[in-house]
Design the sequence.
């Protein structure tokens, strides 16, 4: 074999702490290496051209590039060697940047380590075989999980692009957090007027099927061919017939449980439609509080329903669909502020969250758009806003910035002045973070035109005095302590990962980060892809985001899906397991072990049972290879011999010279 | 870092591509300084790691072997790390029987976002191996010597490498 080795300087990223020419010289002493050089940027156009030229000039049949992580540029260099006429699997990478130059300080030790990593790559390459990918067809259907604004955008874009879309929403209606908002920054336009038409489009688009009150039960398969099981939860209302007239909602005598859509500001009837613009506009019964379902009598809703669609016997339903790609848009939840003792831990009814305030401001909210104190229903005059409640605070394990709280607080001070002209808003803040088009101008307007008083400092405590709440905090710019008598305190609660996101991630094989937000494939270059092919992210499930960013990401995810499904066939990774029938004893252990059902039993011409791998189903994990007692099934590109060759390159056999 | 002041020891790492290799990359991108003893072998999944690889490394004179995969329930291949966990736990209990100090082998879980955790794992494991020192060697000069040693061991005499 004729191997060429290329040691990348990566500018000074590698060359700064690794002696690249010396590594290249050492590599020349390795078996089968006939050419070795160092290069400034292997991934640049001249760098790639130099590799191609060397393959042609030196008649190479395998290439090792020592540079950054293969998770970054392996596909790039595979295409490079392919352009030079080699099979793309006759290529190995040694990671001498992330694993060497960026973590080790000593140039000597780094250089030695780099040379050894190159040696491992050479030994593996010597045992590589050319592999040819297989092709398979994809299901032209998309699953969108979550019906918030990001999911809505992704679904509409996919549907407009001609794909069939299945949207699954956990709640009774789509719209997500945005549907709860009164107005949006920085334009102060009505949230439901912007979102409403898009929600209607979801309901009416011929390519979109919506399952509300539904969750993902199970996910199987792989890119292009996922098998999804959806659990449609019992609503005790036959949605085919329900017209959403709302008669049952009016008559329901049980109003015990707090209304989740209205952020627990009021109680909801047991049979309910969350809000007038709900999509689907169908009633659903809450089994926890319904008198008929808990005590077995009542049934008033069934009596008044003009189309007789109430069904107390309804059960959960499982629906199976096949899809080619999945968009995850499960959004976020609000931080539970009760962890903070200084804000009263819930003892004072007039300390509320920003989302509760939003519902108060909304004309479709429980108070019809009139701001009232929860304690006595009076109109507040002094409203204090506290920022960074559950953001940028290590003490509650939320060190990240939620990003949108500064902006919505500014919006809420403006709305407060609009609703109550003789009111005064105070904002306790740490820093104002308002990067975005027209964002900073908007905050300045809140201060200058609407007279919101911004106080830079944290709040130490809130305590009641008469019918007021005294907010005591620091003013770090004036260097004093301040006390503000407040009628209402609004906490700008931060975003955290949605409840159940981690469990959903397990089903989808998408890893969450330490705070429960899903991890994208690359923080800069692959912001909507995940490490699982065919699964894409949109919106705040990947990290806190405001509406424009969520919508952009929804569209970005849709464009990725459309790109994927526009191909008639996909190429499968040929680095899959392969059975050597001569060694296979037909024990079937691999068949039981395979998590993807990619191995089947066949018979050879003598009628003996043998294992056979279905190429396009195999995902290349190699669990079967370890399970096989005969070493008969080998994962291509990661065979036992290849890994042992790497081990031997690192630790030469000691017992006897002729041990191998 | 005391580990860097002395001679490097031979530590072999087997990392799954999706979580721990990514975690090691994250540590690199974040410039989290680590001891340089570790050499990483990339495998698709911790379920691909045959205990044979680890035993072979140790037999060949590795001073330590570190295995890392995705956190349980987070496997890119759904259940590969469950297989890995069983196999590696069995191996860990079995190693003393072969005469290899089980402290020279460790397995752990590091996700792709846990760069800091990876730095901690590598630093701690390297420190442990340096405390244990180089693995005892077994270097008979010839096959005849080996046979003599084998006979001695068969007669219940102490093995030269494990005292």
Sequence:
């Amino acid at each position: 074999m004729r191997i060429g080795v290329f040691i990348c300087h990566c500018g000074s990223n590698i060359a700064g702490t690794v002696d690249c020419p010396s590594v290249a010289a050492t590599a020349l002493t390795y078996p089968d290496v006939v050419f070795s050089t160092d290069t400034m940027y292997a991934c640049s156009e001249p760098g790639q051209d130099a590799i191609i030229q060397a393959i042609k000039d030196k008649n190479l049949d395998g290439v090792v590039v020592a540079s950054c992580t293969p998770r970054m540029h392996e596909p790039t260099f595979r295409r490079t060697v392919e352009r030079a006429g080699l099979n793309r699997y006759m290529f190995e990478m040694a990671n001498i940047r992330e694993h060497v130059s960026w973590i080790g300080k000593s140039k000597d030790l780094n250089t030695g380590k780099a040379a050894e990593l190159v040696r491992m790559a050479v030994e593996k390459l010597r045992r590589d075989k050319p592999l040819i990918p297989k092709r398979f067809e994809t299901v032209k259907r998309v699953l969108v999980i979550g019906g918030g604004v990001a999911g809505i955008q992704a679904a509409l874009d996919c549907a407009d692009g001609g794909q069939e879309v299945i949207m699954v929403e956990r709640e009774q209606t789509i719209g997500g957090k945005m549907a709860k908002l009164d107005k949006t920054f920085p334009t102060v336009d009505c949230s439901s007027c912007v979102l409403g038409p898009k929600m209607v489009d979801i309901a009416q688009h011929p390519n979109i099927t919506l399952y509300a009150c539904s969750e993902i039960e199970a996910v199987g398969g792989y890119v292009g061919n996922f098998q999804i099981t959806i659990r449609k939860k019992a609503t005790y209302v036959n949605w085919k017939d329900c017209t959403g007239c709302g008669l049952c909602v009016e008559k329901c005598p049980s109003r015990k449980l707090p209304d989740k859509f209205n952020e627990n500001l009021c109680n909801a009837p047991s049979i309910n439609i969350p809000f007038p613009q709900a999509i689907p506009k169908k009633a659903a019964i809450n089994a926890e509080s319904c008198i008929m379902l808990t005590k077995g009598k009542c049934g008033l809703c069934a009596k008044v329903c003009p189309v007789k669609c109430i069904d107390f016997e309804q059960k959960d339903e499982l629906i199976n669909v096949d899809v080619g790609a999945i968009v995850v848009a499960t959004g976020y939840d609000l931080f539970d502020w009760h962890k903070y003792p200084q804000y009263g831990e819930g003892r004072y009814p007039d300390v509320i969250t920003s989302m509760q305030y939003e519902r108060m401001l909304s004309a479709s909210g429980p108070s019809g758009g009139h701001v009232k104190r929860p304690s006595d229903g009076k109109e507040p005059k002094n409203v204090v806003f506290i920022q960074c409640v559950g953001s940028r605070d290590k003490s509650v394990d939320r060190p990240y910035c939620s990003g949108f709280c500064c902006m919505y607080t500014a919006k809420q001070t403006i709305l407060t002045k609009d609703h109550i002209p003789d009111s005064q808003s105070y904002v306790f803040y740490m820093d104002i973070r308002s990067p975005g088009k027209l964002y900073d101008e908007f905050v300045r307007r809140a201060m200058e035109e609407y007279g919101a008083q911004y106080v830079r400092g944290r709040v130490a405590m809130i305590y009641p005095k008469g019918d007021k709440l005294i907010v005591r905090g620091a003013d770090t710019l004036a260097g004093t302590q301040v006390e503000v008598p407040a009628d209402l305190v609004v906490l700008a609660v931060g975003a955290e990962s949605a409840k159940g996101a981690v469990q959903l991630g397990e089903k989808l094989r998408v890893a969450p980060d330490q705070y429960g937000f899903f991890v994208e494939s690359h923080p800069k270059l692959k912001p909507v892809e995940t490490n699982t092919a065919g699964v894409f992210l949109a919106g705040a499930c990947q990290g806190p985001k405001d509406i424009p960013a969520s919508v952009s990401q929804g569209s970005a995810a849709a464009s990725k899906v459309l790109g994927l499904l526009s191909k008639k066939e996909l190429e499968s990774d040929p680095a899959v397991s392969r059975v050597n029938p001569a060694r296979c004893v037909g024990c079937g252990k691999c068949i039981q072990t395979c998590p993807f059902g990619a191995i089947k039993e066949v018979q050879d011409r003598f009628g003996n049972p043998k294992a056979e791998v279905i190429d396009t189903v195999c995902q290349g994990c190699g669990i079967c290879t370890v399970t096989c007692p005969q070493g008969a099934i080998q994962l291509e590109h990661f065979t036992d011999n290849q890994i042992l060759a790497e081990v031997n390159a690192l630790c030469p056999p000691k017992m006897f010279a002729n041990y191998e | 870092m005391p580990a860097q002041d002395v001679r490097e020891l031979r530590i072999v790492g087997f990392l799954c591509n999706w979580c721990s290799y990514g975690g090691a990359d994250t540590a690199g991108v974040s410039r989290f300084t680590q001891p340089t003893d570790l050499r990483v072998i990339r495998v698709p999944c911790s379920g691909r790691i045959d205990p044979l690889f680890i035993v072979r490394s140790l037999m060949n004179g590795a001073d330590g072997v570190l295995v890392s995969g995705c956190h349980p329930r987070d496997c890119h291949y759904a259940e590969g790390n469950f297989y890995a966990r069983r196999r590696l736990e069995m191996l860990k209990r079995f190693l003393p029987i072969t005469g290899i100090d089980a402290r020279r082998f460790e397995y752990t879980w590091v996700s792709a976002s846990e760069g800091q955790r990876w730095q901690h794992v590598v630093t701690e494991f390297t420190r442990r191996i340096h405390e244990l020192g180089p693995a005892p060697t077994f270097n008979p000069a010839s096959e005849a010597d080996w046979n003599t040693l084998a006979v001695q061991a068969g007669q219940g005499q102490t093995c030269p490498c494990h005292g």
